[in-house]
Every structure is written in structure tokens, then in C-alpha cells.
Amino acid sequence: MYHAETIDVAVIGGGHAGCEAALAAARLGMRTVLFAISLDSIAMMPCNPSIGGSSKGHLVREVDALGGEMGKVIDKTYIQTKMLNTGKGPAVYSLRAQADKQAYQSEMKHRLENTPNLKIKQAEIVDFAIKDDKGMFTNTIEKGSTFQILMKVRFNEQIQEPIMAYTFKNIRGTELTGTNTLFEKAEVPEPAPGGCCTVTFTQKMDLQGGEYLLSFGCTGYKDGEFKVFHRLYDACNITVISAKNTVGFFDMNSTVTVQEDDI
Q: Is the CB of residue 184 less than 8 Å from the CB of residue 199?
């Protein structure tokens, strides 16, 4: 059992209602996360993309009056607008805006990504495990033995050059060691949206006997910018057992020879 993070509001789905709900909660100061099957589907409009029209136009104005984003985003990305029902009385006039489908989706997603207190999961560490030299799942490792760290990552959208990493900390929180797929020159294929991959790190345990904390991370590049997509801090406690401990956190694994000198 591990504690990844604490949130106040989880919004499932990134349609018009989901976007407005996530923004409203985040602006009220609540820690909010928005989940979607694919982040490229957030604020995705139908084949006839428009905002407003009969009945719905009135609703959009109400959302706008309450601080919502639909009206602002369509004002920035519309192709054309038309006032409907002009042959009738003013009470039933209704404004409809035809949207640039891709521009609307991109603009709304950009506003979500740049809203404080709001997180959008682009890649998520969904599982992890530790195996000893016998292939058994465990969190107790014998010093000097070979062990494996496995982490499974799900990608909710396309990410360029994803980087998976782990770190060991002592109980006081000081980072001691770790590595990642970039340092180890491991080739990670560019994932498709909705795809998963499992990364296995195999190494020798050189930490001294004691208690340690294991953390995980997934980073990478999005639109040429380096981003941290997901981190699990102190996800697992690791116990290292040893019959011999020396000074410090790492065993130097020295080979020692003693020669008696002539007097």
C-alpha cells in the first residue's frame, strides 16, 4: 500500500461539462485532477462543431456569467457566427458560433493545463514491483544480491522520448542513488495514446543494511518542452539485510590484502 497524493475533486471525462467542472473546482482552491481516456479527446467537438444555438446559446451565456471558459474559448477560435431565429421575436434570438474544431480543443486544453490546482494525467505510473534474485515479489533485499525494480506506465497521449526513473532515499528523506532509462541508454519506443509499457531495472544491491524509501517518476518531452508527468514519492519501503555493514550508505566492496613486513 502506498500513498501517491491527496486530491479534493476527481473529474472523470473531459467533455464540455468536465472541463468546466474541473476549472470551477480548481479555482475554488481545491486540489483537482481530470481523467480522460485520451488527453487528445479533451474538449473534442463533434463533426459539426458549434457552440450556442437554440436553447444551448442561453446555457452558454449562463456558464460564461458564472466564470466558465466555453464562451471565452469560442470567441477566440470561431470561424463564423450567426444569429438564429431573426424572423421571430427578439426573445427567441439565439447566437451560434461555428468552431475551428482543432483550435477549440487545443485552446481549452491549454487553459486547463495552465490552471493552478488542476492536474491532467498525461502519463501515469499504474503499477510497480520489486523482485529478488529468485524472481519472488518482495520488499526485502539481501545486500550483494541482484534484484529487479519493475514499473508499469500508461500513456494517455503521445509523449516524445518518455523517461522512467527510480530513486532510493534514506528514512530521513535524503536521496542516495537512482537511475533512469535515459542514463542507462535504454531505448523506449514512443508510446501510442492509451498504450502501456513495463520497464525493468536490474542491478546489484550495494546499499548498507537498513530501511530505505523507493520513489518513481515518469518524465519526457511534450511539444519540445520537458515535463514531469507523474511521480510517486516514497511509494515503497525497502529493507536491506546484511551480515556486514561498513561506514556510510554504500559498501565499497573492497578487496583487502595484508602483508607482514620484515623488521
A: no
- Which pLDDT tens digit goes with each residue over 129-151? 999 999 999 999 999 899 999 99
Residue with cell 485520451: 38
Half-sphere exposure (Cβ direction) of 236: Cα atoms closer than 13 Å? 22
C-alpha cell at position 73: 474559448
Q: What is the 3-state secondary structure (H, E, C) of the chain?
A: CCCCCCCCEEEECCCHHHHHHHHHHHHCCCCEEEECCCHHHCCCCCCCCEEECCCHHHHHHHHHHCCCCHHHHHHHHEEEEEEECCCCCHHHCEEEEEECHHHHHHHHHHHHHCCCCEEECCEEEEEEEEECCCCCECCEEECCCEEEEEEEEEECCCCEEEEEEEEEEECCCCEEEEEECCCCCCCCCCCCCCCEEEEEEEEECCECCEEEEEEEEEEEEECCEEEEEEEEEEEEEEEEECCCCCCCCECCCCCCCCCCCCC
Q: How many residues does the chain have?
A: 263
What's the pTM value of the predicted model, to 2 decimals?
Answer: 0.61
- The mean per-residue pLDDT over the stretch 31-43 comes to 80
Q: Is the dihedral of CA 112, 114, 117, 118 positive or negative?
A: positive
Residue with cell string 474541473: 22
CB-based contact 79:90 (threshold 8 Å): no
**For residues 106 and 44, is the Cβ–Cβ distance under 8 A?**
no
- On whether the CB atoms of residues 104 and 138 are closer than 8 A, the answer is no
